[in-house]
Amino acid sequence: MKHMVHGDIVIDDTTLRDGEQTAGVVFSRREKIAIARMLDSIGVQELECGIPAMGEEERDSIRALVDLGLNARLITWNRAVIPDIQASLDCGITAVDISLSVSDQMIGHKLRKSRGWVKEQLKTALGFAKEHDLYVSVGGEDASRADIHFLIELMEITREMGGDRFRFCDTLGVLDPFTMYDKVRGLRRAVPELDVEVHTHNDLGMATANAIAGIRAGARFVNTTVNGLGERAGNAPLEEVVMGLKLACGLDPGVDTHRFQELSRFVARASDRPVPPWKAVVGERVFSHESGLHADGVIKDPRNYEGFDPADVGLKRYFVLGKHSGTSGVVERYRDMGISVSRQEAIFILERVRSIAQRVKRPLNEKELRMLHRKWGLKAA
Ligand SMILES: [Zn+2]
C-alpha cells in the first residue's frame, strides 16, 4: 500500500448532503458556498452537494455552487428515477450518485419490491444518465447488509452500461473494519474494472476505521463529512480520515490539513453542533498536557508525546496546571503567560496548585495562576 501516491485516493466530502441531512441541521446558501470554497481550497477533489429533486430552493443552491467554478467536482444525490436525474441536469451538474436500496431487508420491507425490480430501476436510470454524458456513481444503500452476489450483479450491470463506480454504503454503521475489508476486497476482485467508493457511518464508533479499511481493501473513493456530521451518529470525519490515512497508513490523499480547525469551527457554528474539546484531530484541547511526566517529555521534545504537530491541523498546544502537574509544566505555563519563575518558585507554587486543583476538581485558570504567583512567587525566591 505504501507505493500509492497522491491522486490514487479521492475524498468525496458529503458535508453538504449527508451532513445537512442530519436531523435538525440546515445550512444557508451563504454557508454552503463558504463550506464548498474552503473544502475546494484545501484540495478536496469531490463534493456531494445536495439533492436537486428536493425542490427549487435546493436547486438554486446547487446552481450557485456550480457557478463558483471550483476545481472540485460537484456530484448530486439522486434516486434511481429519471425525474431526479433530470433535476440534476437542470442544475448544470455533470456527475451524479444514483442511489438504490440493495439489501433484501430494504427491498422487501421498505420498497416492497424484488431484486429484479431494483435491477430494472438501475438500468433505466443509468441508461438515462449515460445518454446525457453524466459521470455516475451507483450507490448501494445498505450494501453492508446485502447479499454480496447481488452486489456483484449490480456492479456488473454498472460496468457494462458505462457507470463509473459503485458506492458501498454501510448505511447503518454496523460493520467492523475486518468485515469491511473482506467485503470491499471481494467486490474489487469480482469486478476489478469498476472503482469502489466507501460510505461509512459511525453508529458503533467505527466510521473512520471502516473508511480506512475500505481504502486498504482497494476502494479509491471515500466519503467524509467535516466533524463527522451526518445521519444519526454521523459519517466518517474528513479530518480523521485524512490524518489517519497520512499517519497510520502512509497514504497522502493530497489535502492540506492546516485549515482543519478553522473548517471544523465554521461547520460547527453553521450546523449548531459544537465540537467537543476532546474530539479527535480538531478538538480545541486534544493537545493539552497536564501530567508531570508528559509535560516534561513534551517540553524536551514534542514528539515524545504528540503523534503529530498540533499546527498541522491549526491547533495549539496547552500546558494545563492541575493535580497531576510537575515543575517543568509550571515553569512552561508561566513562561507562556510572560512570567519567569525559578525552579524553587515552581516547587512552591506546584504544591498550592495541586491542593487547589484537588479541592476544585479542575485545573487552574490563568487568573488563579497569576494570583498564586503574586502571593507565593516572591516568598519562594
Ligand atoms: Zn449516509
Descriptive overview:
- The protein is α/β, with parallel strands linked by helices and 381 residues long.
- 46% of the residues lie in helices and 13% in strands.
- The protein contains 15 helices and 10 strands.
- The chain has helices at residues 15-19, 29-41, 56-67, 82-90, 104-111, 115-131, 148-160, 177-190, 207-216, 238-248, 260-271, 292-300, 327-336, 343-360, 366-380, and strands spanning 10-13, 46-48, 73-79, 95-101, 135-141, 165-170, 195-200, 221-224, 288-289, 318-319.
- It has an 8-stranded parallel β-barrel with strand order 1-2-3-4-5-6-7-8, surrounded by 8 helices. It has a two-stranded parallel sheet with strand order 9-10.
- It is elongated and about 85 Å long.
- It starts with 9 loop residues before the first strand and ends with a helix.
- It binds zinc ion.
- Zinc ion binds at residues 18, 171, 199, 201, 230-231, 235.
Summarize the SSE layout with pairings.
Blueprint: E1 10-13, H1 15-19, H2 29-41, E2 46-48, H3 56-67, E3 73-79, H4 82-90, E4 95-101, H5 104-111, H6 115-131, E5 135-141, H7 148-160, E6 165-170, H8 177-190, E7 195-200, H9 207-216, E8 221-224, H10 238-248, H11 260-271, E9 288-289, H12 292-300, E10 318-319, H13 327-336, H14 343-360, H15 366-380
Parallel strand pairs: 1-2, 1-8, 2-3, 3-4, 4-5, 5-6, 6-7, 7-8, 9-10
Helix pairs in contact: 2-11, 6-7, 7-8, 8-9, 9-10, 12-13, 13-14, 14-15
The structure holds zinc ion (ZN).
Residues 18, 171, 199, 201, 230-231, 235 line the site of zinc ion.
